[in-house]
Amino acid sequence: MTPETTPGSPPALVLRGVSRSYGGSTAVAGLDLTVPAGSFYGLVGPNGAGKTTTMSMIAGLLRPDRGEIQVAGIDLARNPRAAKAMLGVLPDRLRTFDRLTGRQLLYYYGVLRGLKPGVVSQRIADLARAFDLTEALGRVVSDYSAGMTKKVMLAGAMIHSPRLLVLDEPFEAVDPVSSANILEILSAYVARGGTVLLSSHGMDLIERVCTRVAVIVGGQLLAEGTVDEVRGEMTLEQRFVELSGEATSMEGLEWLHTFSD
């Protein structure tokens, strides 16, 4: 189910001068980014940094005002159908057809991607075993927990064997056992040549699993490289706080420590 990279193959993802504004407010400003094929790549930044806007443009859900996006060497603007065929996407704000059962939803994802019904059925069975979804597939998605919904949608993002997975907060609201299960599946996918681009607020997770990381603040790229290069002598979380200027001041909160009677 997983793709293979070949020597000399193009990067999984390239962004050049990508910008996006909303009503005069700049969300992403001239972003340059290269995600090598076969990498586990982390995208981090504070709330409002432009991560979700960036992920949405990569997924083809938003058009950049300026700049170029290539997926596996294919220009997203010029050939969106071919570029999107290379992508599997898990958005941050989950929206799905929640009156379908899990099996119906995965079947829909598969046939929408052009897979034959027999192939879809086999892959549903494979993914259900891998994600521990077998017993849940007969229930409607509206009855799923947040973590279970995320797992079935991640399975849907993988069903067509994409070259690049774009995952916005894939571990949010997922219990530790399921998180370990998902991470094992994604690690095997990358080991066989797939590429994962994920955003997360979990710095320890990014530090532990990612080969490269980019820090975005105010829609601009402030640091990029291997995890060791970006963090330097600090932890990744310390480096992130330093770059983002997110340190909190306690000045003026002295009253908080007087306590009410």
Automatic annotation (TrEMBL):
Domain of life assignment: Bacteria
Record has ATP-binding as a keyword: yes
Topology relative to the membrane: Peripheral membrane protein
Pfam families with a match to the protein in the record: ABC_tran
Residue span(s) of domain ABC transporter: 13-243
GO BP: response to antibiotic
Keyword list, A-Z: Antibiotic resistance, ATP-binding, Nucleotide-binding, Transport
GO cellular component terms attached to this protein's record: plasma membrane
GO molecular-function terms, A-Z: ATP binding; ATP hydrolysis activity
Transmembrane segments: none
Keyword ATP-binding on entry: yes
Cellular localisation: Cell membrane
Protein's name according to its UniProt entry: ABC transporter ATP-binding protein
